[in-house]
Amino acid sequence: MTKDTDKPIPPIQSSTEAFEQAMLEKEHEHEHHILRLFVAGLTPNSQRAIDNVQNICETYLQGRYELEIIDIYQQPIFAKEGQIVAAPTLVKELPLPLRKFIGDLSQTEKILAGLEIIKKPHQPTE
Question: What is the model's pTM?
Answer without folding.
Answer: 0.70
